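Colleagues,

For the teaching module next term, I've prepared a clean inverse folding example: a structure given as C-alpha cells, and then the sequence designed for it. I'd like students to try predicting residues themselves before seeing the answer, so please don't circulate the second half yet.
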C-alpha cells in the first residue's frame, strides 16, 4: 500500500499525511510541482520528527510517477468527490496506491483516466469535500483494514 499526493498545495496537510504514513509504515509519493517549497517550516512542524521516518519518493511530474507505478505493477485508486463508488464498496489490494488530488484543484481529467478505480468518501449532501489529510486517513484506514489487518498480518 502507498499514498500518493498529486501536486499538493498546503504544507501542513502534507506534513500531517507524512506523520500518518510513518505511524502506519506506509510509503508516500509526492508528485510535483508542489504549491510550497518542500523544506517549508509548516511541513516540518506538521510532520514533527516523523518526516524523517517516512519512506518518501518525489516525482518530477505525473508522467514519471505514473511510469514508476506501472513498472511496479501497482493499481492507482484515485480518491475523488466525483466518484460514485465509495471506499467501503472498493475491494482494496495490498499493492494499491491511494492517490489524493491537490487541495485547490483535485486531479485533472488525464489523472482520472489513468486511475484503475475512482472512489469517494460518502458525506452528507450539500458538502463538497473533506480536508485531504482527513480523507487520506479515512481511506487508508479502510484499505489497511481490508488488506493488512483482516488478512492476518501484523496487528
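(Answer key — instructors only)
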Amino acid at each position: 500500500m502507498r499514498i500518493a499526493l498529486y501536486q499538493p498545495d498546503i504544507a501542513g496537510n502534507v506534513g500531517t499525511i507524512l506523520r500518518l504514513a510513518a505511524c502506519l509504515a506506509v510509503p508516500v509519493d509526492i508528485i510535483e510541482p508542489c504549491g510550497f517549497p518542500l523544506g517549508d517550516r509548516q511541513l516540518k512542524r506538521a510532520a514533527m520528527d516523523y518526516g524523517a521516518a517516512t519512506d518518501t519518493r518525489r516525482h518530477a511530474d505525473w508522467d514519471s510517477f505514473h511510469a514508476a507505478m506501472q513498472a511496479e505493477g501497482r493499481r492507482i485508486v484515485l480518491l475523488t468527490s466525483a466518484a460514485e463508488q465509495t471506499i467501503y464498496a472498493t475491494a482494496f489490494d495490498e499493492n494499491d496506491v491511494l492517490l489524493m488530488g491537490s487541495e485547490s484543484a483535485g486531479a485533472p481529467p488525464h489523472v482520472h483516466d489513468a486511475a484503475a478505480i475512482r472512489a469517494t468518501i460518502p458525506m452528507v449532501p450539500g458538502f463538497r469535500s473533506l480536508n485531504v489529510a482527513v480523507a487520506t486517513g479515512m481511506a487508508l484506514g479502510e484499505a489497511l483494514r481490508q488488506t493488512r489487518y483482516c488478512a492476518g498480518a501484523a496487528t
